[in-house]
């Protein structure tokens, strides 16, 4: 099976490198001739992990290439997801499979609506990775990738080769897993972006912890109303656990702001606020966080591609 990876961010490069190392056939799709030229001058992805630095030679193409796609990994930023899928639509056929691996909520449902339930697997990962430089990925924290289907509790994991270095798990309740990840991201990401702080400061600065508590309480009320089971204990405890284990990290949202990129606030807090509206629950702290991150993007001259599109509900 040949893997085509659409989205050469940290997760895309991590998967590309690990698939190549596992002996799978894999190639990247890049968005512009300039990116392709930049990639071709190095000819692969560097993976930095516990065992040091490994260069993984790979091929890359532009979306317009006619080669049919067998297995697509869609791991662009969530707000780019629809356009990215359209860009390779001519290369997909009835046998093509798509694994959607993105932050936040909404893009998964969009992929299913476009390609159909049968062809789409949904993933959620706790692997920590960041790009040290373009096409140089640091695998900073080993997690697992849960994979499942929205229309069924059974899902066959895609073939990644026998020696794949990332941990995969069949997930019969992938929607719940996505909601749990969303809960953590709603608690941590907007606050770190607004305060410009490392994750750990949300536990050590009292005012920040109080803000986190308020976001968590509202999230729990919405999840309850939507019938989504979150964690055994309070969400704030779980969020603070993640804050402490990733204390030195800068959240992806803060990194986006600092790199002058649109954030995934619409697919994270925007999704939650939409769910709250559907459930008739007021979430003033999350609404304020949404507005403030939008404002921050605006102040920094970051053009958000998705402020007008309200993410779709996942409850049906
Ligand atoms: O997933 C994350 C992110 O930054 O997007 C957390 C869990 C907050 C870790 O940084």
Topology:
Blueprint: E1 2-6, H1 10-21, E2 25-30, H2 33-40, E3 44-49, E4 52-57, E5 59-62, E6 71-74, H3 81-87, E7 97-101, H4 107-115, E8 120-125, E9 128-133, E10 136-141, E11 144-148, E12 167-170, H5 174-195, H6 201-204, H7 206-225, H8 235-245, H9 252-258, H10 266-279, H11 284-299
The structure holds ketopantoate.
Task: Provide an overview of this structure.
With 316 residues, the protein is α/β, with parallel strands linked by helices. It folds into 2 domains: 171 residues, Rossmann fold; 124 residues, N-(1-d-carboxylethyl)-l-norvaline Dehydrogenase, domain 2 (Orthogonal Bundle), CATH 1.10.1040. The chain contains 11 helices and 12 strands. The protein has an 8-stranded mixed sheet with strand order 5-2-1-6-7-8-11-12, with helices on both faces. A 4-stranded mixed sheet has the order 4-3-10-9, with helices on one face. β9 and β10 form a beta hairpin. α5 packs across α8. The longest helix has 22 residues. The radius of gyration is 19 Å and the shape is globular. The two termini are 33 Å apart. Bound molecules: ketopantoate. The site of ketopantoate (KPL) has 10 residues, from α5.
In short:
The protein has helices spanning 10-21, 33-40, 81-87, 107-115, 174-195, 201-204, 206-225, 235-245, 252-258, 266-279, 284-299; strands at residues 2-6, 25-30, 44-49, 52-57, 59-62, 71-74, 97-101, 120-125, 128-133, 136-141, 144-148, 167-170. The chain has 316 residues and is an alpha/beta fold.
